[in-house]
Description:
alpha/beta, 2-enoyl-CoA Hydratase, Chain A, domain 1, six-stranded mixed beta sheet, globular, isomerase
Amino acid sequence: MCTLEKRGSLFFLTLTGEDEHRLSPTLIDSILSILSQIKSQATRGSILITTSHGKFFSNGFDLAWAQASGTTSGARDRLHHMVESFKPVVAALLSLPMPTIAAVPGHAAAAGFLLALSHDYFLMRSDRGVLYMSEVDLGLTIPDYFTVIMRSKIGSAASRRDVLLTGTKIKGKEAVKMGIVDSAHDSAEGTLDAAVRLGEQLGQRKWNGEVYSEIRKSLYPEICGLLQLDHKPISIRPRL
């Protein structure tokens, strides 16, 4: 399902197994629980790296679980439940008191794409894997907070159009050109190695995590307002 490992100042949240890492209620709860653990253990210099095993980072919500309800209204209710229960995961990442890095070694679709995009840094492999917002092809509308994250994190209107309105499947190097991904790497191992190097560099700065979190929230006021994340001023003695 997912695991937590700590190596020095680096926390590794890994989606495990060889499946598509569909965001079922169980997996969503597991991720949220691990993020809570990480927050409680955070110190100066802590970094989160989120990654996965297998060919998928995450293929989005567990639509098979939704459809297993047996009725159209039941499937709609189950999908709505996943949409609502995923909000706290995004909120937790936006308020986590440390830099966050998504090391995406494979396909990231729909809510899986959003999970990666909710991190401060987004690294991806270039030889395999695509980013894909599948909703337009599946005939599903997009939750409001998904759209706000896209507006907050993807600066180009043309890129947002291609992602959301054409369902373009985007490989690593193209995602870098579109301003979605920070860097693309030759393999899953290379992607994770680059994330570790970046994490170690950021960790050396030993920023105050609470300050870092509040600055992040001030950077994305629209999504923080939608998720009802309070932005509070912090008065501390500055490091000169």
